[in-house]
Amino acid sequence: MEDKIYQSYLEILQEELVPALGCTEPIALAYAAASAREVFGGMPGHMDVFCSGNIIKNVKNVTVPNSGGMHGIEAAAVLGAVGGRADRKLEVLEAVTEEDREQVRDLLERKFCTCHLQKGVENLYIRVEMTGEGHHAAVTITGKHTHIERVEKDGEILFAEEQTEAEAQKRKPDKRQLLNVRNILQFADEVRLEDVEEVIGRQVEMNTAISEEGLRNHYGAEVGRTLLSAYGDDIKVRARAKAAAGSDARMNGCCDHQFRQRQSGDDLFLAGDRVREGVAGVQRADVPGAGREQSGRHSPEEIYRQSVRLLRCGERRLRGRGRHHLSVRRELRSGVQYHN
């Protein structure tokens, strides 16, 4: 693999696999509100939150981390304004206290915050505006959960990212343009484990903790606990159950500092948890010549390479299934008749 592509993939991992306190959409709202309060210089008289439809959909019924069970956009934004620390970014709500939560409940009852649908914007769009005593401040986040695009105070633009085509062309090319399936698979095969040990190890530790928490306690629909109780202890069931349990806890307010989740959301969380459970199976039985009594005798390198092979097998099965569906569609279009 070319060194430029290899180094770019390492940088992408470092950027994407960062700690976050729970579900990232309410955290992004809290971060925007905490940032707006810093710009405003204190608590305002009223706060307005303008969001894309996608943000509203994703936050509406999610438990806000460290909120004591509160849900929704207004709760996330007000909690960020009251007790958030903008310098912590995706961990903005980690230091929230019970006193903060009480203040938030009071402000919510007094309709301190109003949510508005912002049409014609990109999927991740949040603008928090604060007003009071003749002053106004606004912070806009777009594209990424911590990407502040614009900051205003009392009619003055304090910061604005240029969006003209000319400026965009001058920017450094996005290394994510180098992402493609072929190179991703090659990177997985060839990566030196010492290059990813810290970032992946942190992810494994946090994902394992939140998954186990979801299996121990009652969160949301309890999909993970239900899978284990209904379908038994098969390795495939365990993989699904552990992934689902982590999602149960993450989306329903699990917020202890040891259960922080990385940035990219449930889809990659699910994939990581299934791979980890698959690796556990590799340790116990799936490596040729390795019985259960040999658990733990394989090096991290052997375990990682075997897990990549497992993923490869799954990828080939999915690809074959896709070719079969495609051939059926082609035959249907050509007039071939199928009978039961």
Give the topology, please.
Layout: H1 3-16, E1 19-20, H2 24-40, E2 46-51, H3 53-59, H4 72-83, H5 98-109, E3 113-117, E4 125-132, E5 135-142, E6 148-153, E7 156-160, H6 165-170, H7 181-190, H8 193-216, H9 223-231, H10 235-251, E8 261-262, H11 266-286, H12 300-333
Parallel strand pairs: 2-3
Antiparallel strand pairs: 1-8, 2-4, 4-5, 5-6, 6-7
Short recap of the structure:
With 340 residues, the protein is an alpha+beta fold. It is built from twelve helices and eight strands.
Verbal overview:
With 340 residues, the protein is an alpha+beta fold. Helix content is 54%, strand content 12%. The chain has twelve helices and eight strands. It has helices at residues 3-16, 24-40, 53-59, 72-83, 98-109, 165-170, 181-190, 193-216, 223-231, 235-251, 266-286, 300-333, and strands at 19-20, 46-51, 113-117, 125-132, 135-142, 148-153, 156-160, 261-262. It has a six-stranded mixed β-sheet. It has a two-stranded antiparallel ribbon with strand order 1-8. A hairpin with a 5-residue loop joins strand 5 (135-142) and strand 6. Mean pLDDT is 80; it is low at 282-296 and 336-340.
Keywords:
alpha+beta, 340 residues, globular, 12 helices, 6-stranded mixed beta sheet
Number of strands: 8
How many H/I helices?
A: 12
N-to-C SSE series?
Answer: HEHEHHHEEEEEHHHHHEHH
What Rg do the Cα atoms give?
23 Å
Shape: globular
- What share of the residues lie within helices? 40-55%
Poorly predicted runs of 5 or more residues: 282-296, 336-340
**From the structure provided, what is the oligomeric state, counting identical versus distinct chains?**
single chain
Helix/strand/pairing class, anyone?
Answer: alpha+beta
